[in-house]
Amino acid sequence: MEVRLFPNAARPGVGMKPRRESSRPQLPQHSRHCPVLEAGSALGYLVYPPLKPNESFHLEYQGDGRYRIVYFVRAKTGQWQPVFALTLAMPVGSVGMMKEDVQFMVQDAGVSEADAIKLAKTFIIPEDFHTPPGAVALRAATNFQTPEGWDTVYVPVFNMVDRPVAPMLVVRVETDWYAHSSEFRYVLEPGEGIPGSHNMPVGQVFFVPREEVTLRDCTTAEMEAIRQSQSRFQEQKEEHKQTTPFGLTYSPHYARTSSAVRAREASSRRPSRQTPPGPPASSESE
What we know:
Elements: E1 4-7, H1 35-41, E2 45-47, E3 55-63, E4 66-74, E5 80-89, E6 99-104, H2 113-120, E7 135-139, E8 142-145, E9 150-155, E10 168-169, E11 171-173, E12 183-187, E13 193-197, E14 203-209, H3 220-239, E15 242-243, E16 249-250, H4 253-269
Antiparallel strand pairs: 1-8, 2-14, 3-4, 3-13, 4-5, 5-6, 7-12, 9-11, 9-14, 10-12, 15-16
């Protein structure tokens, strides 16, 4: 399957490309021996914000419908220097205009107030804020167009165990016909914030077909086959048990079987090589 990529309209070419990553920095090292956990982490692709390596931001929900995003630039000294802050105040009772207030934190920011607002809105989507209260929407550097019949699901980064972790509203979009701009909707508590940097993913995406699923109970024969399969797997798993230098016992049987299955699948998809036809046989007898 081929998924096409198109960039953030306001900052094309800025930000890291989506990528698969099976490891998570906060998980213990022995999780490397859990192939199903790593497969869950690697589902789909990590997606990054439209930030340059020397840029970052911090988005905070201050409560009472007020949100504040601070834009930072790394100085030559290596320290992060706040350049400006944009405060957004939602209308009371959802009636009226959203208020935007820019505060510059350096004498010569090099951008006007209008430019600062425009820049901040390349990282966030204020129109989708505050539904529900505390909800924020982060833009991504990359958008996706799927093949016909396939959707894109936007989720938080799987298996991130850092605390606290803000909840996220998961959405599924029919990206085969709708040119959706990738966004990730988190819900913050008052005083809670989300940082953004060049190499920090804002979320994760994976792709699913719009195919109806029919559920049915297994037959007696199918149940017996499943039980036999489970029994054989456990026996083979025990036969392949290993111990790490740190005393952790694990079995690589699942990972090895999975690799073999994937290799067979790849082989079956690969076009077979046919022997090129030779020169036509002579009609004369030798």
